[in-house]
């Protein structure tokens, strides 16, 4: 059946007139995946010899249910036919191997969503994977997503921000691994026997990012008596407009990782480094997106102003307070941006009221971006440890390190005879603690931020109205 499916449909054009999640086979597939997840170990295997293990026939039957559902749904998605054929083969191979550590390399290589980016195009995926900022275990996950690729974005990517791997995506439905804080769909999270030499796609769920923004920023504005610009209010009120801002921000941000005068391997996926290095890299890419937003606004692109708004407010109001304090590099980047804007006079906290000087914000953000890029430019000629120390000094110029930090004392606080990996281990989990301002804001927004876990656009519509009732003042 799977082979026939691929033969008949591989040349067919994309058709997504019917929503996959409305087909009766989708809940059947989802149910079978959730049943299997319950039996899996952290590495994705199922130990059939364990005392509480299910009968092998029961597990095989669950896999067969997934296969049958994929075969029934795949005709709705002819552009995914070759992937679905490989998926069915990988599922059956896993079943025949008595459910050891899964290997879905063949189906991963067959899934190529970036090759056909069309707005609204649906994809049905099933992979053993972990979800970044979500579930750390290699569980089976089923996701139905759709592409967010409007014509104006496609034109910007073609003419200005070439990024052939980037996929803006939105949720249709998902299994429990995405009922979390995860808003990305990356191929490197999928369980395979060997890592491919290169990947061909990367997805970011801009609908979840927009939903989180709308909920948290509306509540934070109320708590801080922040008078939002009219465009920001529209972003909070209009999910689709907010999604367009995020899909553009994400595309520029993602492209920025590989552009500029950068040290080797700037994204640092393959290196163990102090977490502030990750924070600086993520912030550098966001500041570049802000600068591009200013340029696009000046040229008349409607989404240019919105990119500036979502980047700044998401970075300074949601990022610092999301997640725990265990080497939270995104939180660090948000704290750093806030402190830089405050110290440059582009942001003011007075009389329990937060205000942003929008006339000064572009210059202030660009100054911080230049400072980070100057660090990078000099870093090319520095040894690794010297570069890390210089980056720590840059951050410490805006944020107070923990009083117990060895790194804050510079070379005198570290045993330089030890290898770099051991010095990284001496970085405190919370090397740059929250300021008093953010400690107070965290208490006010605790429940709101908790409500963003697993959020969808529909939930954001309902929750944003009640979030606006958070009490003001404080800090």
Summarize this entry quickly:
This protein has 475 residues and is of the alpha+beta class.
Keywords for this entry:
about 475 residues, alpha+beta, 2 domains, two-stranded antiparallel ribbon, disordered N terminus
What does this structure look like?
This protein is of the alpha+beta class and 475 residues long. The protein has two domains: 2-200, Fructose-1,6-Bisphosphatase, Chain A, domain 1 (2-Layer Sandwich); 260-458, no CATH class. It is globular, with a radius of gyration of 23 Å. The chain is built from 17 helices and seven strands. Helix 1 runs antiparallel to helix 4 and helix 3 (56-73) runs antiparallel to helix 4. The protein starts with a helix and ends in an 8-residue tail after the last helix. A five-stranded mixed sheet has the order 1-2-3-5-4.
Q: How are the elements arranged and paired?
A:
Elements (H helix, E strand, L loop, with lengths): L1 H8 L15 H15 L16 H18 L7 H16 L8 H6 L11 E8 L9 E9 L3 H9 L6 E9 L9 E2 L16 E4 H19 L5 H8 L1 H18 L18 H24 L4 H16 L10 H15 L3 E4 L2 E4 L4 H19 L4 H13 L23 H6 L10 H15 L6 H11 L8
Level-1 CATH class name of the largest domain: Alpha Beta
Tell how many strands the DSSP assignment holds: 7
Characterize the biggest β-sheet: 5 strands, mixed
Overall spatial form: globular
**How many helical elements?**
17
Low-confidence stretches: 1-13, 470-475
Question: How many individual domains?
Answer: 2
Strand line-up of the largest beta sheet: 1-2-3-5-4
Strand content: 5-15%
Rg of Cα set:
23 Å
Q: Please tell me the overall pLDDT.
A: 92
- Oligomeric status: single chain
CATH fold-level assignment of the largest domain: Fructose-1,6-Bisphosphatase, Chain A, domain 1
Query: Which structural class fits the helix and strand makeup?
Result: alpha+beta
Helix content range of the residues, please?
40-55%
